[in-house]
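Holo prediction. Input below; ligand is zinc ion.
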Amino acid sequence: MTAHAQLEPIFIADCELGRGLFAAQAFATNESILRFTGPLIGLAEAIAKGDTEGNPLQVGSADYIDLEAPGVFGNHSCEPNAGIRNDVVLVALRPIAVGEEIRYDYSTTMWEEDVPGGWSMPCRCGSALCRGIVANFPTLPVELRARYLALGIVQRFIVERTMNRVGT
Ligand SMILES: [Zn+2]
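Structure of the complex:
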């Protein structure tokens, strides 16, 4: 493969949640799908964006990436087929077929201690495993947190906080 990709590996299309990311090619487990890009913004700017389509991607205690297309169209699932490694690389967690929607678990990217009450949103992902709400990483069941950490798909600032709090 050269640096100049021949075809976009993903496309944007309508789904029951609005618009979403879909696979234009098959992806193998652990294969990179896309890199999230956009300008870095702070907490106040992220809050000002609210629950719009431009959900910023948290990459630090008060650091966010104001996501650009196509990454901004990545929807949440409580039973995701993709996850984020190294804060910005979306990878397949299992084989993904052409035409399948690609989703990750937003809770692997969220730990907003400075937001009063903590940010959350009702979940309509449709999975049989749906938790009904999307909220900060520590709200996940302990087994699920362990699984996501083992997969290496939790934002690095969250991993550091989790390690710092073991036994405390
Ligand atoms: Zn859900």
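The chain has a mean pLDDT of 90. That is the main takeaway for now.
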